[in-house]
Amino acid sequence: MKSDYVEYLKREVEQTLGRKILTSIDCRHLYHDIAQQQHKVSFNTLRRFFYLMKSKHQQSPYTLDVLSNYCGFSSFNEFITSHHEHDNDDEKSENKNNDLLDYLVSNFKCTEVISTDDFTFSSLVNQTIIFLGRHPYLIDQFQRRIANTKNGQTFYYEQSINLDKLASFYGEGIRYYLVSKKTVEAHTFGHYLLGFKSWLTMNDKCLHKHYKMEKEGDFEATNSPLLFGYKYSLQFYFLNAFSCELEPVLVKLRQFHSAITISKDNFSNTFRFEIHVITALILCAQYEEALFYIDDIFKIKKKFSLSNNDLRLFELIPLYQAIALYHIGEVIKSKEIFNEINPTKFHFLHKQYMTILYLSFKQCLQKRNSEKKQLLSLVQNTGFTRLATLFNKQVI
């Protein structure tokens, strides 16, 4: 019985790290990530734990406790208790499931939150997302119900974009969000995300549908830079998927950007506009244009105090910058930036997505395929098949 929970723990460790442990290189990443949390376990112990090194002995209680701590449990015994309850989910009564759902939803429905950058409530949202990952039978009903709450719409759907799960449950939840929130902003945001999902998964038929639906919205009712960021980004994905010319949209985007006056009241909105635009430009191989907006976003970060949510998004930028610089010929500067990136620090909501790009670009730099198996595993896990195609064509 204990050996079964050891296997559960292995999967939990991989989920926390954001990648499967397939090689010694993956164990090295895990070793450094554990060390950053002030825990101690040897590199060879990790290799033995994941059967990458022969061992005559079972894992020690200390090793199991350290790895359980890494996953957010106080001990291996607590981990066993948690998963024992999970194993019995099917035996739980419907009333108990409803009670738990009521409690989770009440945190979003009844908590008064003054600022969208409330660190305490954002932490609660993060912990709720992690909890749901361990209890997937709750996810669908939870997403349906919080889509009808203001905090659920703002913090779960809009502020905590779960990019790694965009092709699975979070993407499904966006449909509930669109049904519940009937505003121009929600319409544009929702169809942008579902269009991006369709682009990543190479579902061009759905991409065309969401592109068309976004255009049918009453967009002229807003002048929000962020919403224009969604609009232009979706256009780039659509044009890229159907091999159309991007230049006319690039010109319009520059014209819109030049008209923005950044102030303390709109800098966060503008910052997020540029994050989404830069992402689209990098993925669509528009590297020089991406660098223009990357330079601008560094100016915003230097001049204004970014929120915790914005800082989380900013960690995308160094990797994008390294990729763009490499493709315009500034290889030395690109490598310097890339070597400063620590993939174990990627935020859990986009860790797998960023690791795909990180490993793709790493192979591009080092001309080796040592982590190709890991890369393909992440692509399969996220469903982002377009990124695998891009890698095969050496675009990223």
Which features characterize this protein?
396 residues, mainly alpha, 69% helix, globular
Please work out how many helical segments DSSP would assign: 22
Low-confidence stretches: 89-93
* Main pleated sheet: none
What is the alpha-carbon Rg in Å?
22 Å
Mean pLDDT: 88
The termini sit apart by 45 Å
Helical content, roughly?
Answer: 55-70%
Q: What's the order of the H and E elements?
A: HHHHHHHHHHHHHHHHHHHHHH
Which class best fits the helix and strand makeup?
Answer: mainly alpha
Number of strands: 0
Query: Beta-strand percentage?
Result: under 5%
The global form is globular
Structure, explained:
Among the domains are: about 1-85, no CATH class; about 215-390, no CATH class. The longest helix is centred in the first third of the chain and has 17 residues, at about 95-110. Mean pLDDT is about 90; it is low at about 90-95. The termini are far apart. It is globular and about 65 Å long. It has helices at about 1-15, 25-35, 45-50, 60-70, 75-85, 95-110, 120-135, 140-145, 150-160, 170-180, 185-200, 205-215, 225-240, 245-260, 265-285, 285-305, 310-315, 315-325, 330-340, 350-365, 370-380, 385-390. α10 (about 170-180) runs antiparallel to α11 (about 185-200). With about 400 residues, the protein is mainly alpha-helical. The chain is built from 22 helices and no strands. Helices cover about 70% and strands about 0% of the residues.
